[in-house]
Write a structure and sequence with these properties.
Blueprint: E1 2-3, E2 12-16, E3 22-27, H1 33-38, E4 46-51, H2 61-65, E5 70-74, H3 80-86, E6 94-98, H4 104-113, E7 118-120
């Protein structure tokens, strides 16, 4: 992957994949509102990934308001309440979850309410 110099977000690693897709990743940190707000500066479509992150000190409503289509949450303190809030986004098409605290029943409820939102576990 190739580093992207045009975007700078505190604590984020931003890279282009070989296929040209943009990935913005946060790893092993407590996410702050300022970091989420800074995502507004990215004008192109991208995959937003969180690995081992803590969402307890941020307002997920900021993410809901952004035009992010694809998000992945891996090995983090992310549970049912966070998924329910995040799923309110009108732009979100895909959520990838791995080793989170989200229950299958919560995922099933969201899939009923939002059948066009793909949730991959």
């Amino acid at each position: 992957m190739e580093d992207v110099i045009r975007y700078k977000i505190k604590g984020a690693e931003i890279k282009f994949e070989r296929n040209g897709g943009l990935i913005v990743g946060f790893s092993s940190q407590t996410i702050a509102d300022e970091q989420l707000i800074a995502l507004r500066d990215i004008k192109e479509k991208y995959f937003l990934a969180f690995h081992c992150c803590d969402f307890s000190r941020c307002n997920l409503e900021i993410l809901v308001q952004l035009e992010i289509a694809h998000i992945g949450i891996f090995h983090g303190s992310f549970g049912n309440a966070e998924l329910i809030e995040l799923s309110q986004s009108e732009n979100l098409e895909l959520i990838k979850l791995h080793d989170t605290f989200v229950s299958q029943s919560c995922i099933s409820e969201i899939k009923i309410k939002k059948p066009n939102l793909e949730i991959v576990v």
